[in-house]
Design goal:
The protein is an alpha+beta fold. It contains 32 helices and 34 strands. Strand 17 (380-386), helix 14 (392-408) and strand 18 form a beta-alpha-beta unit. GO terms for molecular function: ATP binding; D-alanine-D-alanine ligase activity; metal ion binding.
Length: 834
């Protein structure tokens, strides 16, 4: 084979496409790019965005870090001419199609490669991909191969429009229903969980309509009752097919307002949205053996290559049903692919190097040269995530993203340190940090026997697999090890706080590390404590009277005094506590809202809200939020106080930690998009700045700041567009959900300059060190900025907009990993000054 030096290898990563999964494709492509760029020559890696019209565009690397394609799609991206595109396909050494859904998983892009005589591309050939994307064809092939399948019916849009009543009667008469009289409807040629519904006869038309928005054909099938799982299959450098260990999936039910029992996209990608994962989902080696044997057979019989993800169910009697085969698995930072691969000694960069090896070999070339597996050297950095605040799930995402990006720089010796709810510190392996939620991590630390047995099982199963690209199983898998805070300075040179809210952001840990002389990222204890208190920062903004920078009016409410306020409005004494206790027990929203007791409570809340609006001169609504918590936790923007505030208060006072947004905002249709509800003693009631009669009168923005204390610069601001009146956690931190436009469209260069100047002035008056995120409202007609809040440890998930701001600001131009490295430099400089 002809040798191919990685440092001289030209790679093209293709992503986007016309499907509803294009933002998942963006996330996968970003992980691919980030994982290989330091082990190769970044200048030789082309990022190719495929638009909805299938036009190929050259994308500058700064935009790969956008949360959504919509963030950059409106830009004048340079398009490849037919000649330039053909030259790209001819001259690139390895082609990497990471397009989910149409044009990618249907084989169209791979066929284009082959039409140009190219075979050095990652993934399956066109026929194998086309077969797996067509769900009805997949079911037919499964049946042909002797695998069990459930009764189903393929339905076209034309058929349905011609005879909906007749088809409904026929389908519900032929396909067995579950105990609730329901069956499954899903798009026939669409990946992910989009458009999938569990519906009864009454909701059948609605389920079909949802599926038809994604495909002109819908597969209707019997619901499979069993334990859901997902299993990754990889092909080794030598071609050996190696199924990994399956992840079990359990969807939590019983939360008020969350009526879906399906594994939706939001549950899949947003920690804390209602899904629990377990890898492997059983230690029954006989069952695991059958699953892996069947997966190997399917991979071969469906003509797949390199990688795939197979989804299915195991019934109580041990029967295995394969429900969905994916020829291009999602490879976002914390996907099943990497969770399962880490058990067998493969890090993110190892998996992608394996794919490059596989593709190059198809044109008789072999990657050689410096190993991409070289460990980091130099400074010992502990990255701390987790905690006990309402934002612990977001912290888990920031924590893992920071760890991966710093590791990929090959500049540091990075250690993942988990802070549990008891404020104990644990050094954990990558597999543990890859768990979907902090609850799963807590369970694993509390009882590591399942993990210990898994390591032993993987050691037995691995054999010689992945020896060219991976590590020994034990090298990257170890049991959690507790470390005392007093011992940090012995083990580490720097502490990177990836915590949000709680002791991570209120100055507690900052004081502890400063006392020990240890450098850390972000502001010190005094500034952190001030910024954690939203009312304190509001008062300081008012006192400083920075020209053009103001703060909305606020009232502080002691939650303990709330009932007395409502009694003053006519509520019977003790009635609020009775409602909360009854809600905690029964959690029936419809019955609650229909009760006379609740209506009386709602009337009093409405009168109370009217008094607050008069006092704050806020006729169009109110903002309610905890006095001391971070981000979007517990923030209600209410333009309909009678409908929204009573429910909000009941959730806030109950034992529930999240509230489905659809209960507050009628425009939200998803069951599993939540408002996180922290425990709090004091509530801020704030003036609402918006005006429903003047759209665009205010623009909500987020602005990052960066630099040493007293010399902060404001990064390029971003306009944040919310589905409702308030940005949800999903829109801020879940990949592919929130839209952020940088810089805000419609503003002049001078307006952006003045916004940046005022935000920087405010940050420097506060004494911000290192970095922070300052959320504001901007009123273009008056050119005024209004403070929302300051976050001294802003989210650093892969979806965080501060990365794009650091890349697009002329004074910085930092990629995410380099931005994080700059935070370390600033932290060390601050420690030296103090």
């Amino acid at each position: 084979m002809q040798p191919l030096d990685p440092k001289q290898t030209r790679v093209a990563i293709f992503f986007g496409g016309p499907s509803n999964e294009r933002n998942i494709s963006l996330d996968s492509a970003r992980t691919f790019f980030d994982s290989i760029r330091k082990s190769m020559d970044e200048r030789l890696i082309s990022l190719v965005f495929i638009g909805p019209d299938l036009t190929f565009h050259r994308l500058e690397s700064q935009w790969i870090y956008s949360n959504t394609i919509e963030d950059f799609e409106g830009l004048d991206l340079p398009a490849y001419t037919a000649e330039a595109r053909d030259r790209l396909l001819r001259e690139t050494d390895v082609l990497c199609p990471i397009v989910h859904g149409e044009f990618g998983e249907d084989g169209a892009l791979s066929r284009l490669f082959e039409d140009h005589g190219r075979h050095a591309y990652v993934g399956s050939d066109p026929d194998g991909l086309a077969l797996t994307l067509d769900k009805r064809a997949t079911v037919a092939k499964l049946a042909e191969l002797g695998f069990p399948v459930v009764p189903n019916r393929l339905l076209s849009k034309g058929e349905w429009d011609a005879d909906p009543a007749g088809l409904t009667a026929d389908i519900f008469g032929r396909i067995p229903l579950d105990a609730g009289g329901r069956l499954i409807t899903k798009p026939n040629n669409c990946g992910s969980s989009d458009g999938v519904s569990l519906v009864d006869r009454e909701a059948f038309a609605e389920g079909l309509a949802r599926a038809f928005t994604h495909s002109d054909q819908v597969l209707v099938e019997q619901r499979i009752l069993g334990r859901e799982f997902s299993l990754i299959v990889l092909q080794d450098v030598d071609g050996a097919i190696f199924p990994l260990l399956p992840t079990g999936i359990r969807v939590q039910e019983g939360l008020p307002g969350d009526e879906t029992a399906l594994y939706t996209r939001n549950k899949k990608y947003m920690p804390g949205a209602g899904a629990i994962h377990e890898t492997p989902f059983t230690h029954d080696e006989a069952l695991l053996g059958r699953m892996r044997e069947q997966a190997l057979s399917l991979f071969r019989d469906f003509g797949l290559r390199d990688w795939a993800r197979f989804d299915g169910f195991v019934t109580e009697d041990g029967r295995i049903y394969w429900s969905d085969l994916n020829g291009i698995p999602g490879c976002g930072l914390d996907s099943f692919l990497f969770q399962q691969a880490s058990l067998f000694g493969l890090r993110h960069s190892d998996v992608f190097q394996l794919m490059l090896h596989r593709a190059a070999r198809r044109e008789d070339r072999r990657l050689v040269g410096e190993s991409a597996r070289k460990g980091g050297e130099g400074m010992r950095v502990a990255v701390i995530g987790g905690g006990s605040s309402s934002e612990r799930h977001v912290s888990r995402m920031s924590w893992f993203n920071v760890t991966q990006k710093l590791t990929a720089l090959q500049r540091y010796r990075v250690t993942s340190v988990y802070l549990d709810r008891e404020e104990r510190y644990w050094i954990v392996a990558p597999f543990i940090a890859l768990q979907h939620t902090v609850d799963e991590i807590d369970a694993m630390i509390g009882n590591p026997e399942h993990y210990r047995a898994t390591i032993e099982l993987c050691n037995r199963l691995k054999g010689d697999a992945f020896r060219e690209v991976g590590h020994p199983v034990d090298a990257i898998n170890f049991l959690p090890r507790q470390v005392a805070l007093a011992d940090f300075e012995r083990h580490f040179d720097f502490v990177f706080l990836a915590l949000h809210g709680g002791i991570g952001e209120d100055g507690t840990l900052q004081a502890a590390f400063a006392e020990r002389g240890m450098p850390f990222n972000g502001s010190g204890s005094r500034v952190s404590r001030i910024c954690m208190d939203k009312h304190e920062t509001n008062l300081r903004c008012r006192a400083w009277a920075i020209p053009g920078f103001e703060a909305p009016g606020q009232i502080i409410l002691d939650v303990a005094a709330l009932e007395a306020d409502l009694v003053a409005e006519g509520l019977a004494p003790g009635r609020m506590r009775e409602l909360v206790d009854g809600f905690d027990r029964h959690r029936d929203i419809a019955a609650l809202c229909a009760s006379t007791e609740y209506q009386a409570f709602a009337n009093c809340c409405s009168l109370w809200a009217d008094r607050c609006r008069d006092r704050l001169d806020s006729p169009h609504g109110l903002v309610l939020k905890p006095k001391s918590d971070g981000c979007s936790s517990g923030v209600l923007v209410s333009r309909d106080p009678r409908a929204q505030i009573p429910l909000y208060l009941l959730f806030a006072l109950s034992s529930l930690d999240r509230m489905p947004l659809k209960l507050l905002y009628p425009g939200v249709t998803e069951d599993d998009v939540f408002l996180q509800m922290p425990m709090f003693d004091q509530l801020i009631v704030e003036q609402y700045l918006g005006r429903p009669d003047a759209p665009g009168h205010f623009v909500e923005m987020t602005v990052g700041v960066l630099g040493p204390a007293g010399n902060q610069i404001a990064l390029m601001p971003s306009e944040t567009r919310a589905q409702t009146d308030v940005l949800s956690l999903d829109e801020k931190f879940n990949k592919g959900v929130g839209i952020n436009l940088t810089p805000p469209p419609g503003l002049t260069v001078d307006q952006v300059r003045r916004i940046r100047e005022r935000v920087a002035t405010f940050a420097n008056r506060l004494g911000i060190e290192g970095y922070a995120r300052i959320d504001i409202m901007y009123q273009p007609p008056t050119d005024k900025v209004y403070l929302i809040e300051v976050n001294t440890l802003p989210g650093l998930t892969s979806a965080t907009i501060i990365y794009t701001q650091a890349l697009t600001t002329p004074e910085t131009r930092l990629k995410p990993a380099e931005f994080l490295s700059r935070l370390i430099e600033l932290g060390r400089e601050a420690r030296n000054r103090h």
